[in-house]
Amino acid sequence: MRKKRDWKKSLAKSEAARKDLEQRIEDIQFRLLEKDAQIKGLEEQLQSQQKALDDAFLEVVRSKAKLRSLETKAEAASNMARLKSP
Length: 86
Description:
Layout: H1 2-84
């Protein structure tokens, strides 16, 4: 009879341990889902920031090209003014 009681205790302990492990697995899976959602949000934020950076870079390139064009026109006007003056 004692062996049966010990066996039942062992079985109860095993059941409790199994339930504890199942709960830990569920907790880990939930945290994994949270982290996946966080990563997705950060990836979206990164894409948005990259687009803003790309747009800003293009604006700088356009501005530099416009500035060069204006400098060239100013130089040409200066050269023409020098040629016209005695």
